[in-house]
Amino acid sequence: MAYVLGVDVGTTRTTAAVCRLDGARDAEIALVVPSFLQLTDAGTFSVGEFDVAGWTATGFLRRVGDAVPFSLGPETCPAEELTALLIMWVIGEVVAREGEQPRHVAVSHPAGWGPYRRGQLYGALRAVGVHDVTLVPEPLAAAENHAVRARVVPDSSLAVFSLGSHAFSASVVRRSQSRTFELVNHVEGIDHHTGGDFDDLLGALVRGRLGKDGVVSAAECEAAKRAFGPSVVVGGVEITRDEFVEEIRPSVDHLVSTFVRAVGTVQPDAVLLVGGGCRMQVIGDSLSAAVDCRVLAEAAPEHSVAKGAAVAARLVVVGPEAEPEPFETSVLVHTREASLRFPVGEITRPDDEEFSAPPPRPPVDVSPLELPPRRVKRVASALNPVGRRSRSEKSDKYDDEDGR
């Protein structure tokens, strides 16, 4: 069955979703894998697995356009090349399962990217053989995912609160007359706590009970944070929800106040919660108290951007005018209710002339850095993916974890 593919490369995990061209408009998750790319001395690479015998790179999407490359053993490779290799691998995995190539691929990226960084990624994707691709800002992808299920009238606005393991952002998007979305405002969090920081705060609470010799793993804290009920047991210690909320309240208030400033005078129809960090009930409760509109989230908010990217890829192929408006004004649940969970751009094709040069930089007096010679082409051409794991292994292990 003909399909399109959406890929969301997060700092910690990469998610792929497919959308059928002759089926329902909803996208479905096809793959979730940690955003690790490892080079071995044999010249092969693996994705999503860590082996001490190899050289591992992670977090490369956020460094696309950075002049300083990653060092993988004897090789140096820019962040955009590593990102393109990961996307190429993801496409190959999905093709192996679907039995055919996708009709189109959409890749999400941070909303703050300008023409230079988008151009760098486009060029790297073309270098590894990925040509039919559209880049979609993350908040626009989230809005497209929402618009599949809820009617969004032209000129109305949506706010997007994104909280992942290592990134926070607040955005406002507007529905255009052509039934796409445009970015109105966007703020990237810099000094804000994110999902990984909340894991650390929970770990600190547990170690405070265990004493100076107490040990608790970050993975255990992450799993407990996502599963919080009235209380949770971590490392043999019971922590109540109220205790945890009291510990993280200043950080949550900081996130919410930044979001409110980003929204400004705009009155959005709804706030969409995106990213695995939004699984914490206190996020939805605090936002509901701060804004005068619905606050909506999916059961797995870390998958919203990938699914929205797939919907955006479908729109590229069939056109927005061919898609009927949803009958329901909303099928989503307000976060104040018991069943929190569900809540996406002008989608343009790349113009090479737009990406001719990087933006000007202010003059800085620094000593030149002697970098080792680049051998990126050798990496891209010589690396061969190692064996694949089964779909059930990947899905069961990573599906429910923070995705960004």
From TrEMBL:
Gene3D superfamilies named among the record's database cross-references: 3.30.420.40, Actin, Chain A, domain 4 (3.90.640.10)
PANTHER family according to UniProt: CELL SHAPE-DETERMINING PROTEIN MREB
Record organism: Lentzea aerocolonigenes (Lechevalieria aerocolonigenes)
Protein name in the entry: DUF7159 domain-containing protein
DUF7159 domain residues: 251-313
Region Disordered: start-end pairs: 343-404
Domain of life of the organism encoding this protein: Bacteria
Pfam family, one: DUF7159
